[in-house]
Specification:
about 425 residues; alpha+beta; 2 domains; 15 helices; ABC transporter ATP-binding protein; MacB_PCD
């Protein structure tokens, strides 16, 4: 019976090509607009590292004096001071930890043929690669000895290596960061998370860095941040050393805690550390506070998905509702013109339920066709977003969830639009139309 309904629906759609085209176009435009905004929202809200997002934690400390406030809901700064980052890195414990900043260098090979390029860099600890699942295709991270001695070493990703050398296996080669020569100790696989969740201070949707140097370079070579530096009190900072010893916050810090017990132990260690610092004249607050937020909580805390994005999705669904309303009017006109045919079918024994289902199958087919065209419109919309906003390159795309959702939404919208017209036509009185015939 279902196959028969499909045959009838196809015949009906072909009998009114202009009306069919208008209805398919209406639902396709509505789906195109809706799926464009919904796809971007979906990619924004997707867990960026699902295998371990509940085990990676951003660390916050409250260093301010009583009475001082911060632009967060709990008054705790997003970042740490340099001295706190160094002290936390030195805490005992068998867990991965990574202080980090975003910096940048003029990268070149110190040859006449090598044109210098300005490149972002992640200045961090060697645990960063394990924590955030970067895969080495050649070499490895720098050693602890190299980190402690601030050895001039660097890790590149395969794209950067290919750009500079025309090949990926460049371990042992040299690259210049500014005027300083660095030895390449490792090459990672290309790593492009959709959301730069590990450093939301510098934009949630920026590009991930393609080169990495040890965190000890901050002190050894006065490597300053290219990100945010904030202060909560006046301090005279004449040079970079003063900044490192100040209460300015500019360092991000992440730890990997694999069990609730580890998290409890680490929280106790943070509290003990702040109490110890109080004795040295810092953390002058009656109530000490710290933050340990996993990846998804950290993104919510930083409002990665703004209210504007949510409103835009809502508006797109409202636009889809307008398209559905237009389709409803066209379906009413089309179905009621067939009232005579329905009357004959009813007189020959077709039940109201059969007539109702037949028309729902027709609007469902309409939704399927509109959804398919709508996916094409959505892809064009996402292409426009990618060309308009570079930082949306990874976000303005449709994964398989969105590809499957588009026809489901389109069919559901068309069925919703067709419920009333189908119900109205199935109530046709056979006798009325038989007299006319």
């Amino acid at each position: 019976m279902f196959a028969h309904y499909i045959d009838l629906a196809w015949r009906s759609l072909r009998q009114t090509p202009l009306v069919t085209f208008l209805m398919i176009l209406a639902i396709a435009i509505g789906i195109g607009v809706t799926m464009t905004t919904l796809s971007v929202y979906h990619m924004m809200s997707t867990d960026p590292i699902p295998d371990k997002s509940d085990r990676l934690f951003a660390v916050q400390l409250q260093p301010m004096d009583d009475g001082e406030t911060w632009a967060t809901g709990d008054d705790v700064p997003y970042q740490l001071t340099y001295q706190d980052a160094i002290n936390l890195q030195a805490l005992p414990g068998d867990f991965l930890r990574a202080p980090m900043i975003r910096a940048g260098f003029s990268v070149h090979l110190n040859t006449p043929q090598s044109k210098p390029v300005i490149e972002d860099a992640r200045v961090t600890a060697r645990d960063f690669f394990s924590m955030f699942d970067l895969t080495f295709i050649h070499g490895s991270a720098w050693t602890e000895t190299q980190a402690r001695s601030a050895a001039p070493v660097v890790v590149l990703d395969e794209e950067m290596a290919q750009q500079l050398f025309g090949k990926t296996n460049v371990v042992g080669e040299s690259v210049f960061l500014g005027e300083r020569r660095h030895e390449i100790v490792g090459v990672t696989q290309k790593w492009r998370p959709n959301i730069k969740f590990y450093d939301l201070n510098n934009g949630a949707f920026g590009k991930a860095e393609r080169l990495f140097v040890p965190f000890s370079h901050v002190k050894a070579y006065d490597v300053d941040t290219w990100g945010n530096t904030n202060a909560w009190k006046f301090e005279e900072t004449r040079d970079f050393n003063d900044k490192m010893n100040s209460e300015m916050v500019w360092i991000q810090f992440w730890v990997q805690l694999d069990t609730p017990a580890q998290r409890q132990i680490y929280g106790d260690m943070l509290m003990a550390y702040m109490q110890q610092q109080q004795k040295l004249g810092r953390f002058n607050r009656e109530e000490l506070a710290y933050g340990l937020q996993d990846v998804n909580a950290w993104m919510n805390y930083n409002k990665v998905i703004s209210e504007d994005n949510k409103i835009l999705v809502g508006l797109s669904f409202m636009f889809l509702a307008v398209c559905v309303a237009n389709i409803l009017g066209l379906l009413l006109a089309k179905f009621m013109r067939r009232a005579a045919d329905v009357g004959v079918r009813r007189a020959l024994g077709a039940s109201k339920r059969q007539v109702f289902y037949q028309h729902l199958v027709e609007v469902g087919m309409l939704g399927l066709l509109g959804g398919a065209v709508g996916i094409v419109f959505a892809q064009l919309g996402l292409l426009g977003v990618r060309h308009s906003y570079d930082y949306y390159n990874n976000l303005a795309s449709m994964d398989w969830v969105m590809l499957l959702s588009a026809p489901v939404i389109a069919i559901s919208a068309c069925i919703l639009a067709g419920l009333y017209p189908a119900w109205l036509v199935c109530r046709t009185t056979p006798a009325t139309h038989l007299k006319v015939q």
